[in-house]
Amino acid sequence: MEAGKVTPVIDRTFPFAEAAAAMHYLETGRARGKVIITMP
Hints:
Distance between the termini: 28 Å
Largest sheet: 2 strands, parallel
Mean pLDDT: 93
Number of helices: 1
Strand order of the largest sheet: 1-2
Strand content: 25-35%
Structural class: alpha+beta
Number of strands: 2
């Protein structure tokens, strides 16, 4: 990690108000990386 050889893959970001949509997106199996829920 410290050498920078590992990088996280972020698939999509969702605002907190759309947390339900983010969960649905995860359940469909389409996510190919991390799904991030952002806070205001």
